[in-house]
Amino acid sequence: MDRNTIQKILIGLFISACIxxxxxxxxxxxxxxxxxxxxxxxxxxxxRMTYGRFLExxxxxxxxxVDLYDNSxxxxxxxxxxxxxxxxxSIRVEIPVGASxxxxxxxxxxxxxxxxxxxxxxxxxxIASNLLLPLIFIAGLLFFFQNSDNFSQNSGxxxxxxxxxxxxxxxxxxxxxxxxxxxxIDEAKAEFxxxxxxxxxxxxxxxxxxxxxxxxxxxxxxxxxxxLLAKAIANEANVPFYSVAGSEFVEMFIGIGAARIRDLxxxxxxxxxxxxxxDEIDAVGRERGAGIGxxxxxxxxxxxxxxxxxxxxxxxxxxxxxxxxxxxxxxDAALLRxxxxxxxxxxxxxxxxxxxxxxxxHARNKPFDENVSLVQLANRTPGFSGADLxxxxxxxxILATRYKKKTITKNEVNEAADRIIxxxxxxTMEDTKNKKLIAYHEVGHAIVGSVxxxxxxxEKVTLIPRGGAKxxxxxxxxxxxxxxxxxxxxxxxxxxxxxxVAEKVVFGDPEITTGASNDLQQVTNIARQMVTRYGxxxxxxxxxxxxxxxxxxLGGEYNEAxxxxxxxxxxxxxxHCEQIxxxxxxxxxxxxxxxxxxxxxAETIHGDEFRDLVKEYTILPTxx
Length: 624
Prior knowledge:
By secondary structure, the protein is of the alpha/beta class. The protein contains 21 helices and 14 strands. It has four domains: about 70 residues, Signal recognition particle alu RNA binding heterodimer, srp9/1; about 180 residues, Rossmann fold; about 70 residues, Helicase, Ruva Protein, domain 3, CATH 1.10.8; about 180 residues, CATH 1.20.58.760. The chain has a six-stranded mixed β-sheet with strand order 6-8-9-10-7-11. Strands 1-4-3-2-5 form a five-stranded mixed β-sheet, with helices on one face. Helix 8 packs parallel to helix 10 and helix 17 packs antiparallel against helix 18.
């Protein structure tokens, strides 16, 4: 008898025992009272009396009649006394055990009494009541045995199936997703197409001694298409497919996760060749010993069992494990080695061509107007994942429906992009001093960015509040920037400071507001990375901090001296960039005032219109 069967029997016995005790308690309470319902006339009332008080009434001669029930344990007496208003009353008395002289006392006082026997139960009723509880007990066991599997599939945490795998199984999955529905991640798609080819035509590979990979790990940021690839391979491979989330293996009971891993691979080995997809595998694959006190024992036992099943002493042939995670840095090294996950496929954010392909896929079933350019939309959305782009087009369709349009126009697409990038539009500001100050702030960003040669072009300047920002200035890069030069970083700092500098030049130092707090955080972060990570300062080509901003020189006066030099260099960079921004704003004060007036009227100026306004009046600064 295995462990699961024992668990089922014990739980069934416990529940049946609870039912038995409950029914027995109900029987004791509901059927021990054998006293009849006494009919009392209008001048007779029903009450209770203690046995001692009953004896006093008996000696006083106030008792007229006594009826004994339940083997002389209870009695109903007819009494009349001055205390009762000389009215005859029917009173109930509980007679204690050992009151054997009661009959003699009744005879002594010449009281009319009668003893009533316990009513006999019907034979058939007695037999039925004796069989009822065993039948309920057996029926309860059968119910839990027969329905445990279905209950486990529906709830995922049935106490009857704690050790069973929670994975969903499809003999011939039809996810509705094919490789034609995937774009922007061509390298990852090619890897999976090769695995599908191996499953369909294994002889092509075994002819040259090749073995099918045991595991494929998908790594990348959220929304890049890892789960979508798994759906595509499930649909294309035409083999049994198991899908489960990593968190479904971890329970509060030690050993349950390992048992579920064993059960999963046992079922998978019976349906080879097959694919097992574990989403968010970092839930069970976290590095062992990383937590306090050696980590979570249950998670580590689950991971140990997974390592054994994927590549242990017993070889597991024909089972391909596909894992997905965005936290590959915390996975255990033993899980990542060849033989377990032979391939690690990075599914990154799509480039410009990839975004165009993704937009075309999601635009198939949407009626777009002729003025909508997916190429321009791709240029405007650097850093967007596939999920972000799909959401953008869906938001465009929702807006078109809201405006009662039959096609999606450029206005809906632009509004959807603005909502996703900047947030939902707020109410228009009133014509106050604050609105004018915000207008100079945003135009300051736009003018400085337009003048600098190494900065992106202006896409839009608006005073419409979005999210927490009272105004926004968007810049659209001409191409995706994988490598950023020192001049480009300085241009970003100068442009970011342009808004605050414009406030300072136009309104004076006393009127500088807190609106540039986020700008200053960005400026400080860029300048610090230039010094500590990129070696773009007089300190030299040294990496003084890692990606988590943790210092790489520890302890001692040397560390304090380096920290002081870092602060000095950051200040030098920021102050130098502020001087350049101030010069640009002063040189272009006329065009800034002109654009601010137009922005206050229109509230939004698009990139082409903005460039036409500044083309004749801007003065290029001296390159530094």
